[in-house]
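I would like you to sit down with the record closing this message with an eye to the fold:
=====
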Amino acid sequence: MTFKPQIKVPATYMRGGTSKGVFFNLTDLPEAAQVAGSARDNLLLRVIGSPDPYGKQTDGMGGATSSTSKTVILSKSDQPDHDVDYLFGQVAIDKPFVDFSGNCGNLTSAVGAFAISNGLVDSSRIPKNGIAIVRVWQANIKKSILVHVPISNGEVQETGDFELDGVTFPAAEVKLEFMDPADGDGALFPTGNLVDELEVPEFGVLKATMINAGIPTIFVNAQDIGYTGTELQDDINNDPQALAKLESIRAHGAVKMGLIKHISEATARQHTPKVAFVNKAKTYVASSGKEIHHDTIDLVVRAMSMGKLHHAMMGTAAVAIGAAAAINGTLVNAAAGGGQINEVNFGHPSGTLKVGAKAELIEGNWQVTKASMSRSARVLMEGVVRVPAVN
């Protein structure tokens, strides 16, 4: 019996924000995987170690969580006034599925560094010392992002004293600007309403703010679904019934947002939309043991990712939080105290995060022109990843 040999694919394992992923230069992939299709999907699945019925991804680079089951493909951009194209793939853990329906905001913070270090940004745009602004075309949602990368002696500066809740060690601050972050070509509020009545069999009728900013997100009030908004992962992730109910909100919300036609289709679209629940600021103890006092934050938010409560906050969901907070009348804005809000500091399971957004009412439609936040990123390992040859 003969077996396929292992192949070597150049790759970089990076942390970006509170996520980790395997980064590739498009031209380093096997030729068949350089275009969308089964060859690419099969390669990414094998690299990460999916599908794994044990849920551990032991035979791959994945970490068996939504935050660590991620892939990124970068290439020089053909878009005018952009440096690099960024394609994100969220790899399912127990299913043979790579979801390209949305962006990863956390890994966005590592895109600029990878692009510079791998020659994807013209050298004329990189100062010897200072900040290089990498113009990123986010290929999943067709939006522009500016990544401010610190440069020291002509190279990416990764170390620093910027602290990010959910990440153990400090690093250099990377500022992100999400330009016109409404997801895809759709409206910011796909139903046309700031607050909808969402019918979910397990809960009845819920008030919901459904927004396309950063990533399609469904916001509900924590108390309406039996929570306080101060929950940690074990409070929810060890309760199969709770997870099923939250998934039902996601599925029914996806239909109402026009992302799918029937709730049965939600299983094939795990990455989007997200579900998050909000409440006014409350004191709680974060997963690190640090007390987050109510007078240091504007509201509390908990978000679901790939069927589990996220250990911190997805960067794209943070964009949605900032955008919704900036618009008076949404559930997020109300939880943050209401009125005109340009920036919020919200509490999540690992600590706090500050995000800003600018919203305008133009010809009767709300538009968010920019959302911004700070993250950090660094290379964990670089070289080649080995996988059995796949078709």
The first helix runs from residue 38 to 48. The chain is about 15% helix and 35% strand. The first strand starts at residue 6 and ends at 16.
